[in-house]
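seq:
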Amino acid sequence: MIARKVAENLLKIKAVFLRPDEPFTWASGIKSPIYCDNRLILTSPEARDVVESAIAETVKKEYPEAEALFGTSTAGIAHAAIAGHILKMPMGYVRGSSKDHGRNNKIEGKLEPGTKVVVVEDLISTGGSVIDVVDSLREAGAEVLGIVSIYTYGMKKGLERLAAANVKNVSLTDFDTTISVAAEIGYIKEEDVARLKAFRDNPSDESWIKA
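struct:
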């Protein structure tokens, strides 16, 4: 099962780091039991092979009409490039904002109107940044088939935003799979699973910390 295999690899290289008893603090101020840094995938050949092969297989299965991959800036760029190489498919990326020089591009790479595009993203939390990328591609005339993301927290806000934007997302693995695997291998205690799910359901409610 791809979801489990990817989760095992992310935990092994600590791209996903769980610390329910010593929460991290996000930039928003929210206390979180999880820290996710998928950039570490690129420095682990074994995990990288698993993830990039999974991205390519997911594109073929879920978006068979895809003609090009576009990565999110900056985390999705390398993954889109490697998966694009595997699939022998064109790739590009979308900047967070337009360049202030040259041709002032926001979209890098050749993109003809009507091109069927899949967006490659490393992590989806609230979904805001990847939806901005989808909007930019649509404004440029692309037909965005959907997103392939490496990881998603499965937060309600993110799911609602994606639905409102009418964009499909397929994640290789997710929060629930990760904590299930983590409990099985003894990375976290079985009783922590409910606490972690409480965080996912409502990140602003910190009662899970005291559980």
